[in-house]
Design goal:
With 408 residues, the chain is mostly beta strands. It has one helix at 2-18; strands spanning 31-48, 77-81, 86-95, 98-109, 118-129, 132-138, 163-172, 176-183, 203-205, 211-220, 223-238, 249-264, 268-278, 291-295, 304-308, 310-321, 326-337, 348-360, 366-379, 385-406. The strands form two sheets. It has a 16-stranded antiparallel barrel with strand order 1-3-4-5-6-7-8-10-11-12-13-16-17-18-19-20.
């Protein structure tokens, strides 16, 4: 009922707003696009040959594979989903301070408290005035162009992929692009084998400073290359008042990310990246914990400390266009996390992800694809591994309607 109300109010708002714009493009005066409604309806049908968390049956998120035998038994399940369906609006206007742009976009793929549900999930929600952007959009630490033209929702495990609330400055735009941002902080920790210790119950996050991110991108007819960086101050506070010990502390999170898109002739595109850092798992596409626990047995005041977990990820995809109708996409991605010795037995250590996709676009605005997907995860403490093979067929219809106003 709540979802229906949200959609109804959004459609009423869009209808009333669009009435203020003219769609008449036959006049001699210059028309400027000021508003756009866009999105797509998408249906996925597929078969899981093995097991995955049922809330993620229509995606291949490697961290959601079993952590012990038959955790999500039985093998072999069919799934159908429309959760990738997307809807968005964009608006533009001129101001004395430069162009003003606003974006509101969501899909239907519930996560977090809505995990497994078909419900509205905000993707892009921001306003941009000139070179200043405020709101939720892609972190500058990420390169959105390296996401391959595949149909599985979650995507490669080893890439940086995160949309965050931020204040962003575009220092340079064009062929040489430099973005700098202050981002909403956030981190998660693995208490591991010490999770039952009462001392840890009183330790809470203390995120005093924003994360700082930046990237420089060089573009041309050949494609682009981007180098990005991330710096994070991850603090935690022990709020107990009985004395005897104090587990408060902080760790430094940092990351370097190199990515590229290369046009290899007229028919091939390569998309690849490599990332390494410590305590930046929150920005990875599929990695759980930023901080682990280490012991300091000789320190009665602070017997346990936090450690930013090192992470390395990479991805390589090749897209070959056979004709205006047919395209093949093939690639592989991997993630490795260095857990602490006190990490839990089922902590995520290694993940691999590979897909091969045949995409057909027989008519404008319509896409059909068949994809074979493979994922594998390995635990840290007990050396348990699990994998999955999925076969997915997807259909997508895209739409876009622009509205114009006369340039004064």
């Amino acid at each position: 009922m709540l979802l229906k109300l949200r959609v109804t109010l959004a459609l009423l708002f869009l209808f009333s707003l669009s009435k203020s714009f003219s769609q008449d493009q036959s006049a001699d005066t210059t028309l400027v696009k000021t508003f756009e409604v866009y999105g797509f309806a998408m249906t996925d049908l597929g078969y899981n040959t093995k097991q995955i968390n049922p809330a993620w049956s229509d995606a291949l998120r490697v961290t959601k594979l079993p952590t012990y035998k038959n955790q999500y038994a039985p093998d072999g399940t069919f799934y159908g989903s429309v959760r990738q369906t997307r809807f968005g609006v964009r608006g533009w206007t001129q101001t004395p301070l430069g162009p003003l742009k606003g974006v509101f976009e969501f899909d239907m793929f519930g996560v977090g408290a809505d995990e497994g549900q078909t419900t509205m999930r905000p993707r892009q929600l921001y306003g941009e005035l000139g070179r200043i952007l405020v709101g939720q959009t892609n972190t500058p630490f990420m390169d959105g162009d390296i996401f391959p033209n595949t149909v599985e929702y979650w995507g490669p495990t080893g890439i940086v992929f995160f949309r965050n609330i931020q204040l962003r400055l575009a220092v340079m735009t064009g062929e040489n692009e430099l973005f700098v941002a202050l981002e909403r902080p956030g981190a998660s920790a693995d208490a591991g084998t010490e999770a039952g210790r009462i001392e840890l119950d009183s330790v809470v996050p203390k995120l005093e400073l924003p994360d700082v991110s930046a990237h420089f991108k060089k573009s041309g007819p050949w494609g682009h290359i981007q180098i990005a960086g991330m710096l994070r101050d991850i603090k935690y506070k022990d709020i107990h008042e009985s004395g005897g010990y104090d587990l408060s502390g902080s760790v430094l999170g940092w990351g370097l990310h190199l990515s590229t898109v290369l046009n290899l002739g007229a028919m091939n595109v390569f998309r690849g990246s490599i990332i390494h850092g410590e305590g930046v798992e929150n920005y990875m596409n599929d990695a759980p914990y930023d901080v682990g626990i280490i012991a300091d047995s000789g320190n009665a005041q602070q017997p346990l400390k936090g450690k930013a977990l090192p992470v390395t990820g990479w991805s390589a995809y090749l897209e070959h266009t056979w004709s205006p109708v047919w395209q093949t996409v093939l690639g592989y991605s991997a993630t490795h996390i260095e857990n602490t010795q006190l990490g839990s037995a089922t902590a995520y250590k290694d993940g691999t992800y590979a897909t091969i996709t045949m995409v057909a676009t027989p008519v404008k605005n319509f896409m059909a694809a068949v994809e074979v997907e493979y994922g594998k995860r390995a635990n840290f403490g007990n050396d348990y591994t699990s994998d999955a093979v999925k076969i997915q067929v997807s259909f997508k219809y895209s739409f876009s309607q622009s509205f114009y106003s006369r340039k004064k």
